[in-house]
Amino acid sequence: MSDRRTDPSWEDLDHGLLIGAVVLLAVGALAGLGGSLLAGAAAVKAARSWSKRAELPPADLARLKWAQARAAAGAGAGAWRAAEPPRRGAVPVP
User: Fold this and answer.
1) Dist. CA 50–CA 16, nearest whole Å
2) What is the Cα 15 distance to its own chain's centre?
3) What is the pTM of this model?
4) By the 8 A CB rule, do 45 and 52 touch?
5) pLDDT of 30-55, one tens digit each?
6) What is the dihedral of CA 61, 65, 68, 72, to 10 degrees?
7) Residue 79 and residue 66: Cα distance in Å, rounded?
8) Burial readout 9-38 (b: 16 or more C-beta within 10 A, e: otherwise)
9) Sign of dihedral through CA atoms 23, 26, 32, 33?
């Protein structure tokens, strides 16, 4: 019989190449994390700047936008109902 092993082993790995890959992955992860933090800081700074320039406080602005969205949805639903052909035997909705 042969003494040669055919099963995979840790000895088959090129350790230098593996260490290089781990280092590059770590550097890439740190660079990505740093970029994410910078983008988040820029977004927070822009939101604060916008909030200071806004004429309404955020709660009032949210309330206004919600009312506008409800009015638009109601208008859209009314237009949809008005465009439907009447069904036979259906009672018209006032």
Assistant:
1) 51
2) 38
3) 0.50
4) no
5) 999 999 999 999 999 999 998 888 88
6) 170
7) 20
8) eeeeeeeeeeeeeeeeeeeeeeeeeeeeee
9) negative
